[in-house]
Amino acid sequence: MTHQIDSSGASVAEQLLGQRDEAATLMPTPWPDLTQLAELNFRHKAGIIAQGGTREAKVGRDVAVHAAHTGLPVVLFTGYPPSTQPETLVVKEIPAPTDSHVNAAAKIHIGGRTPRLIVIERYERLTREPHEPYSDPMRDLIDEVSEEESWGDRLMWTVRNIRVNIPVLLTTVVDEVPDLARPLGRWLPIDHPANVMTDVCKPTIVLARSGAESVEARLEVDPHAYRSGERSTLAWKPLPRSS
């Protein structure tokens, strides 16, 4: 792993120490309970699933804007830019971003610094980078039947090809009211983006509104396996509409 050293005048040791502290610091969100649950730091890929049309459905945008307002450089991939855009927020409106687009975004400079967070709204828009085959595939005269790669597999591998040292937040939505009493695979098709997310994002969090200022969350997948399936109530005050 390589680190980018800036030209601010600080010694190499001081810069590396600062990078270590940044890697250990959780990325702030508008809701402290979510900050602790999502654990957005260093290389973590975190996923959030919400019901379409709800206030939680734009959680990616809200997190990106909030982090940028704190002065952190952030890149947001979205089809719906926020109405207010802090100076440290770069918005990418690419309809079908590839893993290469995301990897390149981690290297851009925002106010002289590289990004500290990448957010991808409706991550199922991601498209695999086309690769030329090395040669024509050889025909198997014994068995010419091959299993075609599914859309879910292609999405999974595209996300896995996002290889950056900063945290990445991915979001998607479901049409149904989230059923937090059952695992995703029990109430959604296996190839649904939300199910695919559990293969590539740790943690993966499912959200459902439970009150005017609270959201129920199910930790669908977590690096600590014993916490997967755990439910909790998060304090979640609505944000101003201008965000």
Give a description of the structure.
The chain is α/β, with parallel strands linked by helices and 243 residues long. Helix content is 25%, strand content 20%. The protein contains 7 helices and 8 strands, in the order ααβαββαβαβααβββ. The protein has helices spanning 12-24, 32-38, 59-69, 99-105, 151-160, 184-187, 193-200; strands at 45-51, 74-77, 89-92, 117-120, 168-174, 204-211, 214-221, 230-235. It has an 8-stranded mixed sheet, with helices on both faces. A hairpin with a 2-residue loop joins strand 6 and strand 7 (214-221). Helix 5 (151-160) runs parallel beside helix 7. The radius of gyration is 19 Å and the shape is globular.
Topology at a glance:
Blueprint: H1 12-24, H2 32-38, E1 45-51, H3 59-69, E2 74-77, E3 89-92, H4 99-105, E4 117-120, H5 151-160, E5 168-174, H6 184-187, H7 193-200, E6 204-211, E7 214-221, E8 230-235
Parallel strand pairs: 1-5, 1-6, 2-3, 2-4, 4-5
Antiparallel strand pairs: 6-7, 7-8
Sum this structure up briefly.
By secondary structure, the chain is α/β, with parallel strands linked by helices. Helix content is 25%, strand content 20%.
How many strand elements?
8
Helix content: 10-25%
Q: Characterize the main sheet.
A: 8 strands, mixed
Mean pLDDT: 87
Overall 3D shape: globular
Name the helix and strand elements from N-terminus to C-terminus, one letter apiece.
Answer: HHEHEEHEHEHHEEE
Radius of gyration: 19 Å
Query: Low-confidence runs (pLDDT<50, min 5 residues)?
Result: 1-5, 14-18, 141-146
Q: What distance separates the N and C termini?
A: 36 Å
Strand content: 15-25%
Structural class by SSE content: alpha/beta
Q: Number of helix segments? A: 7
